[in-house]
């Protein structure tokens, strides 16, 4: 059920994006003859009075189709309600409406979270919790005597405070001490222990000790007292999530070689969503809002086959006074689509191979 919940979240966000395009067209009287979730062969379809609604085999997104280039369309090429015959502003509204829909929907998801289940906040305690130690007896932490439930309260004589930075500080120390001894102060119940261990270098050269680490504290939920507070608190949370997302994309671009492995495809996103649904389904609101903002940012990038790429074509048309030749646009869009689908398939294969149950088949 948790996997189905995560898939439903991802599908809903794709539908919201495509509905933005679809409604922006229909409200302006522009023809839209296809509304599809996914790409490739049709698994299910319904033919409405003006539009064919379909679910397709490859769930890597969706699209709204227009009859402009449909050879079977009986609409006159000069019809003013064809998308290509509309002014640049009308077309820009249709193209950008999917991004706008995702951004707006993310905000209302946070409003719903704040107004119903509340936003999670950690009541921090000193140190970093060790919720789980790797089972392998050869791991550094096991050999040093660290146990599940321990709290690391100090590293190399420095105390780890009661804040969110404690986890980052500890991880940075561990990663920077590959093949070098590290002194840890452990709180185990009422007992305080001093342990020394030497992190092993991972494949990336950074130190690791074979434990899961988590903030030390209890999660409390802050629920809005009224609708005005819900909208206000949601706006603050929206700003925080949006800034972190933009910063993440900036780091990906500026340090692509180091951060490329962090890029996730549909399989990894569903796996993360399933874990969230299992641990605390209420956090699916925030998860969906985060993914919705990510979809908006990705789609606005000026890349072929994305909304940003089509907006770039409109900008060029505005500067030139006429559009690029259809042959050139089609070649660029097809190339972009092949690259994006190829990247999507690569991410699906990689993320599937990284799933725990798949790796266990080869052990």
Structure description:
With 363 residues, the protein is α+β, with helices and mostly antiparallel strands. The protein has 2 domains: 182 residues, no CATH class; 101 residues, PDZ domain (Pdz3 Domain, Roll), CATH 2.30.42. 50% of the residues lie in helices and 22% in strands. It is built from 11 helices and 10 strands. Strands 3, 4, 5, 6, 7 and 10 form a 6-stranded antiparallel sheet that branches. Strand 1 and strand 2 form a beta hairpin. The longest helix has 29 residues. It is elongated. The chain starts with a helix and ends with a helix. 25% of the residues are buried.
Write down the domain tally. Answer: 2
- The low-confidence parts are 357-363
Instruction: Supply the helix-strand structural class.
Output: alpha+beta
Q: What is the number of strand segments? A: 10
Q: Given the C-alpha coordinates, what overall shape results?
A: elongated
Distance between the termini: 27 Å
Summarize the structure.
The chain is of the alpha+beta class. The chain has eleven helices and ten strands.
List the helices and strands and how they pair.
Blueprint: H1 2-27, E1 34-47, E2 52-65, H2 88-116, E3 119-133, H3 140-144, E4 151-155, E5 158-159, H4 165-175, E6 182-188, E7 191-197, E8 200-201, E9 207-208, E10 211-222, H5 227-254, H6 256-259, H7 266-280, H8 284-300, H9 307-320, H10 326-353, H11 356-360
Antiparallel strand pairs: 1-2, 3-4, 3-10, 4-5, 4-6, 6-7, 8-9
Helix pairs in contact: 1-2, 1-7, 1-8, 2-5, 2-8, 2-9, 5-8
